[in-house]
Amino acid sequence: MSVRSATLMTTAIAGLLAGLPALAQDVNVYSSRHYDSDDALYEAFTEATGIQVNRLEGEADELNARLQAEGEQSPADILLTVDAGRIWRADQLGLLQPIESEVLDERIPEHLRDPEGHWYGLSQRARLIFYSMDRVSNPPQTYADLADPAYEGQVCIRSSSNIYNLSLMGSIIAHEGEEAAQEWAAGVVENFARDPEGGDTDQLRGIVSGACDIAVANSYYFARALAQDVEGVTGSTDSIGIVFPNQETTGTHVNIAAAGVVTHAKNRENAIAFLEFLTTPEAQAHFADQNNEFPAVPGVPVGEVAASLGEFEQDTLNLDELGKNQAKAQEIFNAVGWP
After folding, report:
1. Is the Cβ–Cβ distance between 213 and 154 less than 8 Å?
2. With CB atoms 3.0 to 4.6 Å apart as the test, which of 156, 157, 222, 232 could cross-link to 206 if both were Cys?
3. Domain for residue 238, yes or no?
4. Which candidate, 218, 211, 204, 209, places its Cα nearest to that of 309?
5. Are residues 332 and 202 in the same domain?
6. pLDDT tops 90 at residue 48
7. What is the band of 19 on the pLDDT scale with cuts at 50, 70, 90?
8. How far is CA 313 from the centre of its chain?
9. Coil, strand, or helix at residue 169?
10. Across residues 33-40, what is the average pLDDT?
């Protein structure tokens, strides 16, 4: 982070915290977001407030289990994770508490936060359709098109148990109903180029290798291949086309990195102040850019790499619906034989 950026963030935090009572000197973050670049944000927060940020990293389900085991003795103040479906799971386990923050409610759009204030989105990614520009002349324009028989044997996508696909299916259930969602899933299975394997980057590699002509992946995986060397993708990005689906209907499905205050937080006021800091324009730009995502706060400039993907209309379905439909989504996937 540049000196100027750090100074701007420090100034923003100082204004944000003016008038607050004296706070304890720690905030403890359990995070499944594994980016060393976030350290710069934590350091700026500490410099402005004197509050030390202590981070413990782990996988989302592991952190949920740890919080359950620790109970009231947990030192955690904040749970930070990726995907609305994961933060929803934590909330359903009783691991998050409601908070009231005019700052967060004003900055974070309603569809990117829990209706009861249990969690807030902090950055966004879009679930996009990618295709081979050499082999596909008429690419799918909607998620529904992925089930069109015209694309038989062409589609690569992850397994049904992947949280990104569960959340996408959750949104389809919310918009179209369970029957239509099952018909869609069955059609996509018929169009598989191969059985689901690997992560989102592997779906992009499938286009490059010729294993498939069409793939579904989150936006930042492709952006990462533009920004740095990603084996099997970088060097071939010019041959991969991008579709922001559903631009004429519901808008493109988005998901989030999100955080909430843990139920038994010992440093509750520090935790709220930290979340509010992460929504300042300077922190938002840094937080999103480090993973080539889109800021959650409207009006914050999108980083150069993410912006190069193009502008789009996003789905404004409240992301709480993704979690509510998660079990049904898996049931439908199982019913149609989506591995």
Report:
1. yes
2. 156
3. yes
4. 218
5. yes
6. no
7. very low
8. 17
9. helix
10. 83
Instruction: Kindly state the DSSP code that residue 96 receives in the 8-state scheme.
Output: B
- Domain count of the fold of the chain: 2
CA-wise closest residue to 5 among 324, 282, 337, 211: 282
Using the predicted structure, report yes or no on whether residue 1 has a pLDDT greater than 90. no
pLDDT confidence of 107, banded at 50, 70, 90? very high
Number of Cβ within a 10 Å radius of residue 42: 18
As a whole number of angstroms, the distance between CA 229 and CA 234 comes to: 6
Asked if the structure places residue 36 within a domain, the reply is yes
Check if the beta carbon of residue 27 is closer than 8 Å to that of residue 78.
yes
**Domain residues for 156?**
125-252+319-336
Specify whether 26 is located in the same domain as 66: yes
What does the pLDDT look like over 152-199, one tens digit per residue? 999 999 999 999 999 999 999 999 999 999 999 999 999 999 999 999
The answer as to whether 104 is a domain residue is yes
d(C-alpha 95, C-alpha 269), whole Å: 17
- For the chain, the farthest-separated pair of C-alpha atoms sits apart, in whole angstroms, at 64
pLDDT in tens, 69-99: 999 999 999 999 999 999 999 999 999 999 9
Answer yes or no: are the C-beta atoms of 195 and 339 closer than 8 Å: yes
- Residue 181 sits in a domain whose CATH number is 3.40.190.10
Examine the domain organization and report whether 327 and 206 are in the same domain.
Answer: yes
